[in-house]
Amino acid sequence: MSDSAHFTAAEFVAYSCARRGIRVADLGVAPTVVGVWSPAVAGYLAEQAGAVLQEHYQMFCPDVPLWTGSIAGQPVSFTRWRVGAPATVMQMEELIACGARRFLGLGWAGSLQTAAPVGDLLVPEACIAEEGTSAHYRTDGDAPAGPDPALAAALVAAAEAEGCPVHRGLHWSTDAIFREVRSKVEAYRARGAWGVDMESSAMFALGRFRGVGVANLLVVSDELWHNWRPAFQSDELRRANRAAVAALLRALANLPPG
Questions:
Q1: Positive or negative torsion for Cα 175, 242, 126, 92
Q2: Pairing of the two strands 121-130 and 102-111
Q3: 140-168 mean pLDDT
Q4: Which of 3, 126, 129, 258 has its Cα between 20 and 30 A from that of 178?
């Protein structure tokens, strides 16, 4: 029996466009896509880049906006990721079918290390995958998937140039944020994991499977190495988000054509 997909993202996109009387090319998806899990930050980033809302994409995907503009002469699209590994990866599959070839994600993470307090930036590398999506994008014997090295390096260099504290290395992804139990927090902290999110490991697995570049820049939004310390909706996190946006825009301006 074949292991090929029974239906593909390209087939789904073509079907959805045909029902709406538009072409895939009308969706306005650039080869480089930036995805942000916060709607407010996504809109702010698109505004800073001077990107324009793509109306045909709204017809195709009414609940998710997409803006497209140009940075350093290269077309770039900006969108809001749906939360969670299955939803983010499904969205990425559709964007790949529309012509996307590299992805940069901007989001939040809980920190496991005292050296990375709220407001610091993380660039995940190898991941501890405890979400259910990445298993569908790897075969037996595959090592843990990581980011595209050049994209990850560009994010680190841009963050450092903006004067942002940035840490790269082992990362933990999980589907169950309310089951980040103390024993796992301590065990993964001892292994050197910097942070925890819901999507990075699955995004990297998809990137390897589809042959597209993926890297993420995550702002520490809460601390887990002691009693939980959240900073959501705080001025502290807003300042860090703005710094992360500046770093991401700098990284985009310095990327080679692709």
A1: positive
A2: unpaired
A3: 92
A4: 126
